[in-house]
Write a structure and sequence with these properties.
N-terminal domain of MutM-like DNA repair proteins; elongated; alpha+beta; 2 domains; four-stranded antiparallel sheet; 6 helices
Length: 284
């Protein structure tokens, strides 16, 4: 599932070909969103809210897509062959300069712009961490609310109702950078700690929004002197997908386990992110 920075880059790519252009043709899968309704409209905005991509049209409609685990937006020239099979396309928007195609997305719907505030999913989203000034205090209160107080912070950071934009890569990296026990319950954490985690997540999203290989660590990482030399391939992240390899900070072996309802795999260092008090039981 694309994280907030990836989706923002996608929106920027689509914006370059779509915004302020008139829709020549639009269509999707039979029986799905009636995209032909926007033919002849001007595209007024391509924007992102958390992990949701919205395309606004001058006639008052909005195309809402959520890419899930396998969806993707592509941009093509009008005469360029598509890289994926046409029967996988769930939304196609043609303008004079090119075509935007959404493949395999589970959520594709056409909504009245005035009804977006009432959308059952969009209206529940927490503050967007890629906003120019993310409302971190609001996100902290959401993490400390009764619905999440008994939830491990590693699970809560993926809950888009608390804060929108973070995904599986960033939750592992943020928790490691802040030396936070990923299994501590939100209700046991103070507001300052939660705010620091969210601020770190927002900072990393912004650092990576321009594209290129995602990185959460500086060029000079201060890694443990006994840790193996980093290759170009794996030098960008602290713990993500490094199960069984030495922690870049202390040399302990990175561990991983599946968490949450989806479930998604968490990566952490048992030394750098040790719990504040001893607990019993296995953690993967």
């Amino acid at each position: 599932m694309p994280e907030g920075d990836t989706l923002r880059r996608t929106a920027d790519v689509l914006d370059a070909v779509l915004e302020h252009r008139v829709v020549v043709a639009a269509y999707g899968r039979p029986g799905a969103a009636q995209l032909e309704r926007v033919t002849g409209d001007e595209i007024t905005a391509v924007r992102v809210v958390g992990k949701h991509l919205l395309i606004d049209f001058s006639g008052g409609l909005c195309l809402h897509t959520h890419l899930g685990m396998n969806g993707a937006w592509h941009r093509y020239r009008t005469d360029e062959p598509w890289r994926l099979d046409r029967d996988r396309a769930v939304a196609v928007i043609e303008v004079p300069a090119g075509v935007a195609v959404c493949f395999d997305a589970p959520t594709v719907e056409l909504i009245e712009q005035r009804a977006l505030a009432l959308h059952p999913v969009l209206r529940q989203l927490g503050p967007d961490l890629l906003a120019q000034a993310p409302q971190l205090d609001d996100a902290v209160e959401r993490l400390r609310s009764p619905s999440l107080a008994g939830t491990a912070i590693a699970v809560a950071l993926l809950d888009q109702r608390a804060a929108a934009g973070l995904g599986n890569v960033y939750r592992s990296e943020v928790l490691f950078i802040k030396r936070q026990d990923p299994f501590e319950m939100c209700g046991q954490m103070d507001g300052e700690t939660l705010r620091s985690l969210l601020a770190t997540g927002a900072r990393l999203l912004r650092l990576n929004v321009e594209g290129g290989a995602r990185s959460t660590m500086p060029d000079t990482s201060g890694a443990h002197r006994n840790a193996p030399r980093r290759s170009r391939r794996d030098a960008r992240l602290w713990v993500y997908r490094r199960t069984g390899r030495p922690c870049r900070r202390c040399g302990s072996l990175v561990r991983s386990t599946s968490m949450g309802a989806l479930p998604r795999r968490l990566y952490w260092c048992p030394t750098c992110q040790a719990p504040r008090a001893a607990t019993s039981g296995s953690r993967g």
